[in-house]
């Protein structure tokens, strides 16, 4: 009698299941589909590694901020959850450095006065009812389904209900005393990372009772979550252990050296123009030290990231805006061009548009990134030759294996037969059969030298170039290929060389450039037969955005969300108020800076 069988393994050949073959139409010829220019990485010092082919860095450390267009919200409650996330509501961190709750609140003292100047990251939220931003916030939220609030108190109560803390009555235990100006900081004390939270309070007694219930609901003890209640605010510290001692130390340091008086924080905060609903500040060096405490690769972090990052989230008349800047010792390599936004305005009034100015020293930058990548990840070939991974079954053994398998799952094998079956089963799944053996024939792609040669070829041609892209959404194909406009204006008359290099790269993927690509002098371009009429500059939303974009912009992205909602109505249920998204990144006095805007419909 066999032992209790495990679920049966796949009984087909080692190459994988043989699914039914359905009749298909002949596959269309694969063409290169041009897309937006590669996104520069804001706030990365020269030398930061890029993934081969121009993707995100192989490591994105805590606090590193890389703005990008938000994905379209997906129906139902998605709009409410997305908006709540965008607002960042104030947090209580959980065990370690995990954040436990998110709350939106009203009135109180400057939270930065309650935090130690040595904090590595700080976030502040301000929803004071007298605050000029608050009416705009409520007005904008009312454009979304189920987000029509008369006051921030109503918004608070709704968001607290979303938190779903068992044993906590959101209205009685929390919103009854929570104010609206709050802060969260990450801080190191005595070799351990802690979350420090300051919450504005309107009722000290209610705050004391509410926090006790909150701590119990979170399953924490006093050594993990310690707090003190003052007349106008609550200060708490959360960590794995030693929260009480950390709380005392945080209060002591904040009393003599508060974050609000820190020169680096003051400089960064003063840069933000006007009132802000939320402020996010990061000291890159301190974050690197904090990363070391959590086991992250702090050496790599400190090598590539430095300075102080400041970002502010606010409401303007037509939507929401996020601005950011990195105050650092190294100049941002993406210096940009004064003509970038003007040139973008001349593109067709498409649903999606992007433009980029490639730095003249892009070859030097990419060489440094590749050298750093090699240093971090090595250059040894790690793909072994394709060989059987063991002793494959002969044809007779495979027939025997299949016969024994039936008895195994019917529990009819003798002990000897079961032993034989398990032996064959192990060999089969390790090595396959002689006719169809398991081999390590995975294609690991080009090696380091090939990558360097390919990248060098492109950077040599693209140095100082301006790239542009525009196209319209299509419900069936994602992007209508006939609506595309793609162009590269090079610094030298080498467009033909770039076309040849692109064709060579595509040939390795069995793809070709579409018909209609032209290369003459310094410009290579493709224009479809159905490009949008008019220009982006004629769109008042784009013109409004261009006026606030960095004067020296290196990259700009435009997405007409109203057009996306029309093309993909199911994905925008409850979020039809979204009108457009725009982002531009550039430099100011050597610092990387940028602005993102989310436009809403009237």
From TrEMBL:
Regions of biased composition (Polar residues) lie at 524-534
Q: Where is the composition biased (Pro residues)?
A: 1-17
Which of UniProt's keywords are assigned here? Membrane, Transmembrane, Transmembrane helix
**According to the UniProt entry, which residue ranges have a biased composition of type Low complexity?**
18-34
Q: Where is this region: Disordered?
A: 1-78, 509-535
Give the stretches traversing the membrane: 81-105
Residues of the signal sequence?
none
- Record's superkingdom? Bacteria
Specify the protein name: DUF3352 domain-containing protein
Q: Which organism is it from?
A: Glycomyces mayteni
């Amino acid at each position: 009698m066999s032992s209790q069988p495990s679920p049966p393994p796949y009984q087909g050949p080692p190459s994988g299941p043989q699914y039914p073959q359905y009749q298909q139409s002949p596959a269309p010829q694969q063409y290169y589909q041009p897309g937006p220019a590669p996104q520069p990485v804001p706030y990365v010092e020269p030398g930061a590694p890029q993934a081969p082919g121009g993707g995100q860095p192989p490591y994105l450390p805590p606090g590193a901020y890389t703005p990008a267009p938000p994905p379209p919200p997906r129906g139902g409650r998605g709009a409410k959850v997305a908006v709540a996330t965008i607002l960042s509501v104030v947090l209580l961190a959980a065990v370690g450095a995990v954040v436990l709750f998110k709350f939106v609140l009203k009135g109180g003292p400057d939270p930065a006065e309650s935090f130690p100047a040595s904090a590595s990251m700080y976030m502040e939220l301000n929803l004071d009812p007298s605050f000029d931003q608050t009416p705009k916030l409520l007005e904008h939220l009312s454009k979304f389904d189920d987000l029509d609030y008369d006051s921030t108190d109503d918004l608070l109560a709704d968001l607290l209900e979303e938190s779903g803390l068992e044993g906590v009555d959101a209205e009685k235990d929390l919103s009854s005393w929570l104010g609206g100006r709050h802060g969260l900081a990450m801080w190191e004390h005595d070799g351990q990372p802690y979350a420090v939270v300051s919450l504005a309070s309107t009722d000290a007694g209610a705050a004391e009772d509410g926090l006790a219930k909150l701590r119990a609901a979170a399953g924490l003890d006093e050594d993990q979550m310690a707090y003190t209640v003052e007349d106008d605010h609550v200060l708490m510290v959360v960590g794995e252990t030693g929260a009480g001692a950390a709380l005392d130390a945080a209060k002591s340091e904040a009393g003599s050296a508060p974050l609000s008086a820190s020169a680096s924080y003051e400089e960064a905060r003063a840069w933000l123009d006007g009132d802000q609903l939320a402020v996010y500040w990061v000291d890159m060096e301190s974050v690197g030290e904090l990363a070391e405490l959590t086991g992250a690769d702090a050496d790599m972090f400190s090598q590539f990231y430095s300075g102080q990052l400041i970002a502010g989230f606010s409401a303007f008349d037509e939507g929401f805006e996020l601005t950011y800047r990195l105050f650092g010792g190294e100049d941002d390599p993406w210096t940009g061009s004064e003509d970038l936004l003007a040139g973008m305005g001349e593109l067709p009034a498409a649903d999606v548009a992007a433009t980029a100015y490639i730095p003249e020293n892009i070859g030097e930058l990419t060489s440094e990134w590749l050298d750093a990548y090699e240093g971090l990840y090595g250059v040894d070939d790690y793909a072994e030759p394709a060989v059987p991974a063991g002793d494959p079954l002969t044809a007779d053994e495979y027939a025997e294996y299949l016969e024994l398998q039936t008895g195994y799952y019917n529990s009819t094998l003798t002990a000897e037969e079961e032993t034989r079956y398990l032996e064959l089963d192990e060999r089969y799944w390790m090595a396959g059969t002689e006719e169809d053996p398991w081999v390590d024939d995975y294609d690991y792609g080009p090696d380091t030298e090939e990558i360097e040669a390919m990248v060098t070829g492109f950077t040599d041609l693209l140095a100082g170039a301006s790239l542009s892209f525009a196209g319209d959404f299509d419900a069936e194909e994602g992007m209508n290929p006939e609506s595309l406009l793609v162009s590269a204006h090079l610094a030298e008359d080498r467009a033909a060389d770039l076309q040849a290099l692109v064709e060579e790269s595509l040939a390795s993927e069995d793809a070709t450039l579409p018909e209609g690509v032209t290369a003459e002098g310094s410009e290579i371009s493709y224009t479809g037969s159905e490009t949008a009429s008019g220009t982006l500059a004629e769109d008042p939303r784009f013109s409004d955005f261009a006026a606030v974009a960095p004067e020296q912009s290196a990259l700009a992205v435009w997405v007409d969300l109203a057009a996306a909602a029309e093309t993909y109505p199911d994905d925008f249920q409850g979020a039809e108020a979204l009108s457009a998204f725009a982002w531009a990144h550039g430099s100011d006095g050597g610092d990387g800076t940028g602005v993102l805007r989310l436009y809403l419909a009237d």
